[in-house]
Design goal:
By secondary structure, the chain is α+β, with helices and mostly antiparallel strands. It folds into two domains: about 120 residues, Archaeosine Trna-guanine Transglycosylase, Chain: A, domain 4 (Roll); about 70 residues. Helices cover about 30% and strands about 25% of the residues.
């Protein structure tokens, strides 16, 4: 759908802790704050309809100015592909992930929401076809995932997971599992699908050890 030349230099950004957007994945969002309602309305008027999902960066109190939150260096842009409005004026939208980006600088202006000048070039692979992971062993991975879901008291449609394409499986788990914002940022920045899968395995194994470095009991 998009080529590198289609991507704008400046995009609106939505800083949301723990929210992860990945290329070719979908993220539903419930929009109710006035500044983000304005962002959606403005975004729908553009030809690209892109919003950059980005996580706030923890800032020491001594460095934080009132009302200001620093942003992570890397985020991911999604295109509004689903939109509905509730009777009380809230928006329910769906973003479809297009490409990651690196923030060059924040753009000052008169919009109530934040905008950034971004660089897409480090992530040209995001605009390509679905990624593969030759080292993926579904049986072992699903067994580990099952133990994690039991420990975390999570439920899912296991039949769908067992049949899902590898990229969809890994990226969906990256977005949906209750990892910390820092861990989700690491998943976002993983350069390849197999690196992201290895990161998920490490995070799951750490959780199964109860957050310690002890060996997992078999």
């Amino acid at each position: 759908m998009f080529s590198a030349s289609d991507l704008p230099d400046v995009i609106p950004v939505f800083p949301l802790p723990g929210a992860l957007m990945l290329p070719r994945a979908r993220l539903p969002l419930h929009i109710f704050e006035p500044r983000y309602l304005a962002m959606i309305e403005d975004c729908l008027k553009t030809p690209h309809r892109l919003i950059g999902m980005i996580q706030p960066r923890e800032t020491p109190a001594s460095e934080k100015r009132e009302g200001e939150t620093r942003l992570q260096a890397i985020g991911c842009a999604g295109r509004i592909t689903g939109f509905s409005e509730t009777e009380d004026g809230r928006y329910m939208i769906t973003l479809s992930g297009i490409s990651r980006f690196r923030v060059k600088e924040e753009v000052q202006g008169f919009t109530p929401y934040r905008r950034c000048l971004v660089d897409w070039t480090p992530f040209t692979r995001d605009l390509g076809p679905t990624e593969e992971d030759p080292g993926f062993r579904r049986g072992e991975f699903m067994a580990l995932l099952g133990r994690y879901f039991v420990k975390m008291n999570l439920s899912t449609d296991w039949d769908s997971l067992k049949e899902a394409e590898i990229e969809l499986l890994i990226n969906s788990l990256s977005m949906l599992c209750p990892f910390s914002p820092e861990d989700k940022q690491a998943l976002l920045e993983a350069p390849t699908l197999d690196t992201r899968r290895e990161t998920i395995v490490t995070l799951i194994e750490f959780a199964l050890r109860g957050g310690s470095d002890e060996e997992i009991l078999q």
